[in-house]
């Protein structure tokens, strides 16, 4: 099952090391995208980047 894990490296609510990094490592073949400086609410603060990455993943 194709899986995309996206996480901000400045998430103060759910730290990257404890969540996104571990999830991607546990899911065979997962694609990991880390947004530099992105907080927990990266869907708002990094919406353009997120939309671009989601579309590319879904089309890919």
TrEMBL record:
| Originating organism | Pseudomonas syringae pv. coryli
Q: Which Pfam families match?
A: Peptidase_S9
What protein is this chain from?
IS52, transposase
Q: Name one GO biological process term.
A: proteolysis
Q: Which PANTHER family match?
A: HYDROLASE, ALPHA/BETA FOLD FAMILY PROTEIN, NON-HEME CHLOROPEROXIDASE-RELATED
Report the superkingdom from the record.
Bacteria
**InterPro entries to which the protein is assigned, alphabetical:** AB_hydrolase (IPR050471), AB_hydrolase_fold (IPR029058), Peptidase_S9_cat (IPR001375)
Any GO MF annotation of the entry: serine-type peptidase activity
Task: Show where the Peptidase S9 prolyl oligopeptidase catalytic domain sits.
Answer: 2-59
């Amino acid at each position: 099952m194709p899986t995309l894990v996206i996480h901000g490296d400045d998430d103060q609510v759910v730290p990257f090391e404890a969540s996104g990094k571990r999830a991607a490592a546990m899911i065979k073949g997962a694609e990991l995208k880390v947004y530099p400086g992105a907080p927990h609410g990266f869907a708002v603060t990094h919406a353009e980047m997120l939309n671009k990455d989601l579309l590319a993943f879904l089309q890919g």
